[in-house]
Amino acid sequence: SYWFALGRHFRIHRSGGAVLNARHQPAPAPEQQKAIDLYETYLQGTALGLAMAGSPYAYISLGSAIACSAEAYIRSGGMNRRLAGEDFYFLQQLRKTSGLAPVQGTCVFPSARLSQRTPFGTGPKLQELLDHPNAALFYHPQAFDLLRQWLQTIKHNLRSSGKELLQKAYHIDPCLRDFLAEGRFVQRWDRMQQDKPADLWLQDVHTWFDGLQTIRLLNHLSATDFPRGPANTHLAPLLKQIGQHRSI
Fold first, then answer.
1. pLDDT at position 21 over 80
2. In this structure, are residues 67 and 20 in contact, taking their beta carbons and an 8 Å threshold?
3. Angle CA(93)–CA(95)–CA(97) in degrees, nearest 5?
């Protein structure tokens, strides 16, 4: 059950935060069910792509599928009062301050209802998919691969200067370099090297290049050379690639 699984999870995991499996309840109409199925596939596909890229922010952000210890809640600063995305930002803080781990053996079942309470999130996304059922939704698989290359480049070049890393980003893809330059990466990186010992740089990188920065990069790539698309052209190649990695 839910409480048994949570109790067992926090007894065996050191991470103070946790994410649970989630599956939306059946929708009242076939069109709405199709929309929620597509949305869930998008969430799962995005999390898989981030995991394949090696991002520490590879999880699904659903408010009803979050758990944490009291200590982790305090360390994170608590749930914020944003109009939308509060679950996303809360999970991000939990990941930075106490760590996250998936809960096994249980699942939560949030409502699939439409809602205009917030400017983005499940409710508005369902309405968007109902209004535009053929809308391009999934990130390009190459965008996740660029993210993977970038994270690996950082990991293996922690002693490089910001300018050197920006040049390496250009060789990965000019769109990546443009994104980093717009975010004043060189200044941030050089300041980070001054403030922390070398063995903590990678941790500091993931604190700065967090879930929000990651999504911003994916959206930047989507708006430039790697546009979003349907599941058959964007998700299927990613799943095939993941299968190939697992078979090695």
1. yes
2. yes
3. 65
The count of other CB atoms within 10 Å of the CB of residue 182 is 10
Read off the amino acid at residue 207. Answer: T
Assess contact for 219 and 183: CB atoms under 8 A. no
* Cross-strand pairs, 107: 21
Question: What confidence tens digit (pLDDT) does each residue in 76-116 have?
Answer: 998 877 666 788 899 999 999 999 999 999 999 988 766 55
3-state SS track over the chain: CHHHHHHHHHHHCCCCEEEEEECCCCCCCHHHHHHHHHHHHHHHHHHHHHHHHCCCCCCCCCHHHEEECHHHHHHHCCCCCCCCCHHHHHHHHHHHHCCEEEEEEEEECCCCCCCCCCCCCHHHHHHHHHHCCCCCCECCHHHHHHHHHHHHHHHCCCCCCHHHHHHHHHHHCHHHHHHHHHCCHHHHHHHHHHHCCHHHHHHHHHHHCCHHHHHHHHHHHHHCCCCCECHHHHHHHHHHHHHHHHHC
CB contact set of 190 (below 8 Å; sequence gap of 6+) = 161, 162
Mean pLDDT score of the chain, rounded to an integer? 87
What CA–CA distance (Å, rounded) separates 23 from 108? 6
pTM: 0.89
Structure tokens at 70: 């009291």
Structure tokens at 63: 């408010």
Place of tokens 């911003």: 216
Q: Which residue has the tokens 């799962």?
A: 44
